[in-house]
């Protein structure tokens, strides 16, 4: 039987979701190949690029090798190539690898930043809609803050230490939230006062996060950023960007070397001459079944559209948004209808396939505003919900490998407390896994003092000063307070008990457990997480003074 190709162009959210869906349904039909084409060999988790740009996570955190995702999907063939065009009559996709014939074609090539023709953005600014762009921002911010810290001229110094983000949509707000946290780290690294690093959010309209219907959530996000030192400037339309800064509509300027444009998204420009009908942002218009609309307003028989490539307005839910769920819903509808064309199942409209659960906008790792399943909430639980949304996507594409690494990178491999738990569960900030041992040892000493250890009571004290020390030691370990010195006390108590009451293997267990707790166990869900840094700042500043990036002590 002759093989037939279902070609998917673009390995973004829509393309990967569609490839997984089609692979599962066509698993037993060996005559069909699913060919997934992308110029990269990896899937990029686009909605997390702001975390890479701000150095919260490493670049590999948002990259997932396509081989990992599709290794067990034998009917999916991966092709790393660029697509140059399509021949609808011959049903061929033209690529740098050669021509590929198709039975059905799904275009999900993604989007790119839209600067609306604003002069100077591409020459002097930065955009955030690809891995390459996020890495440029990541390297630039690190370098420019370092230069600013060493600059002695006040005006030049302020320019170098000013970071401006244009656009207060999801991307702009989330990036600014990350900069709030990165500023703290950079200030410590370069011996700056945090207030010297100015964060400015520029919005052309009268309010931020315009896509939020519930303005109370937007107001909470506004207040959180404002309370954390972000200068939010509404009604500030940028009309130009130069080497020295930003030009506004009223002629005023903002000196900066760090202008990041997040004000719009449009379809990839290389699809603009492929013979379709294009809507807002250069996206390909589609009918209710996600079939691409041709220039003569008729739907294509064999070409479908999904993700940021798509321009479609649903009567009930409105325009398909440039979000993960928007891409999933359009890819789901396209997959249903591709299968129906092939004789598997029935056709479904977008309205029948759409699944919107809500959204979550993270303003850094510690604060999020969310509207999910009809409920609006913010703060810690909203941050957990944001992670839940990301994990849900990975579960839908059946990637336990991705789920494991996401959990590790977002919770257990984070530096500088940049996770929802403020670093309390990070393996880099403390030894989380000794926390149960610390709690057990704390309870042990309290029970020893109270005489509730059964046959082990004779090995310890139940009265007098020694019993009081046992209770203090146990309570401190239980709370994770002054863990290192109390672990040392635990060792001394055990040695004295050994000498006084005779040897038991329990003594060795207590000594070795106490040693294990001396590596920072009190910072894992313990009060030392707050106390130790406070003591370090207080006594370090008292003994060594405060380091600065510039000194002027001639008047002393």
From TrEMBL:
Q: What is its EC number?
A: 1.6.5.9
Instruction: Write out the coiled-coil annotation as residue ranges.
Output: none
Membrane-crossing residues?
Answer: 437-456, 468-499, 505-522
The record's listing under Gene3D superfamilies reads:
3.50.50.100
Annotated catalysed reactions? a quinone + NADH + H(+) = a quinol + NAD(+)
Keyword Flavoprotein on entry: yes
User: Superkingdom of the source?
Assistant: Bacteria
Enzyme class, top EC level, equals oxidoreductase
FAD/NAD(P)-binding domain residues are 5-327
The UniProt keyword set, sorted, is: FAD, Flavoprotein, Membrane, NAD, Oxidoreductase, Transmembrane, Transmembrane helix
Q: Name one GO molecular function term.
A: NADH dehydrogenase (quinone) (non-electrogenic) activity
The family database entries (Pfam families) matched by this protein are listed as: Pyr_redox_2
Q: Which InterPro entries match?
A: FAD/NAD-bd_sf (IPR036188), FAD/NAD-binding_dom (IPR023753), NDH-2 (IPR045024)
Name the family: Belongs to the NADH dehydrogenase family.
Name of the molecule in the record: NADH:ubiquinone reductase (non-electrogenic)
Write down the species: Leuconostoc carnosum (strain JB16)
């Amino acid at each position: 039987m002759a093989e037939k190709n279902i070609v998917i162009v673009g390995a973004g959210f829509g393309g990967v979701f569609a490839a997984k869906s089609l692979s599962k349904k066509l698993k037993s039909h060996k005559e069909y190949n699913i060919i997934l084409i992308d110029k990269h060999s990896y899937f990029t988790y686009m909605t997390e690029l702001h975390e890479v740009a701000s150095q919260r996570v490493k670049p590999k955190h948002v990259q997932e090798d396509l081989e990992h995702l599709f290794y067990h999907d034998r009917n999916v063939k991966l092709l790393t190539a660029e697509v140059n065009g399509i021949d609808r009559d011959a049903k061929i996709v033209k690529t740098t690898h050669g021509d590929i014939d198709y039975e059905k074609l799904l275009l999900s090539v993604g989007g790119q930043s839209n600067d609306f023709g604003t002069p100077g953005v591409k020459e002097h600014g930065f955009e955030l809609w690809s891995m390459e762009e996020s890495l440029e921002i990541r390297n630039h911010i690190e370098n420019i803050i370092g230069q600013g810290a060493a600059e002695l001229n006040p005006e030049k110094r302020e320019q170098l230490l000013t970071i401006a983000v244009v656009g207060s949509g999801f991307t702009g707000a989330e990036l600014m939230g990350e900069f709030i946290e990165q500023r703290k780290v950079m200030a410590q690294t370069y011996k700056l006062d945090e207030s010297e690093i100015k964060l400015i959010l520029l919005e052309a309209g009268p309010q931020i996060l315009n896509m939020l219907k519930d303005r109370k959530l937007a107001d909470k996000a506004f207040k959180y950023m404002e309370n954390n030192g972000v200068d939010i400037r509404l009604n500030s339309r940028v009309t130009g960007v130069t080497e020295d800064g930003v030009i506004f509509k009223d002629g005023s300027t903002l000196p900066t070397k760090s202008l990041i444009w997040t004000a719009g998204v449009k379809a990839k420009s290389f699809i603009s001459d492929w013979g379709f009908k294009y809507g807002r942002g250069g996206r390909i218009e589609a009918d209710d079944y996600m079939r691409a609309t041709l220039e003569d307003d008729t739907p294509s028989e064999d070409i479908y559209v999904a993700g940021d490539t798509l321009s479609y307005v649903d009567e009930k839910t409105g325009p398909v948004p440039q979000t993960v769920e928007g891409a999933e819903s359009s890819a789901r509808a396209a997959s249903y209808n591709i299968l129906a064309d092939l004789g598997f199942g029935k056709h479904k409209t977008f309205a029948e396939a759409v699944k919107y659960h809500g959204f979550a906008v993270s303003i850094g790792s510690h604060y999020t505003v969310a509207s999910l399943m009809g409920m609006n909430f913010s703060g810690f639980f909203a941050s957990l919900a944001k992670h839940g949304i990301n994990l849900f996507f990975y579960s839908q594409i059946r990637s336990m490998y991705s789920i494991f690494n996401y959990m590790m990178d977002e919770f257990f491999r984070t530096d500088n407390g940049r996770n929802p738990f403020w670093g309390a569960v990070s393996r880099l900030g403390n030894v989380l896994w000794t926390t149960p041992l610390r709690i057990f040892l704390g309870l042990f000493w309290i029970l020893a003092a109270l005489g509730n250890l059964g046959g082990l009571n004779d090995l310890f004290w139940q009265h007098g000063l020694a019993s009081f020390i046992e209770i203090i030691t146990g309570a401190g370990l239980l709370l994770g307070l002054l863990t290192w010195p109390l672990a040392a006390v635990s060792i001394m108590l055990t040695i004295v008990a050994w000498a006084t009451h005779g040897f038991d293997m329990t003594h060795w267990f207590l000594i070795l457990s106490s040693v294990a707790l001396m590596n920072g166990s009190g910072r894992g869900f313990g009060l030392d997480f707050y106390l130790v840094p406070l003591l370090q700042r207080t006594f370090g500043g008292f003994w060594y003074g405060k380091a600065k990036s510039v000194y002027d002590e001639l008047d002393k």
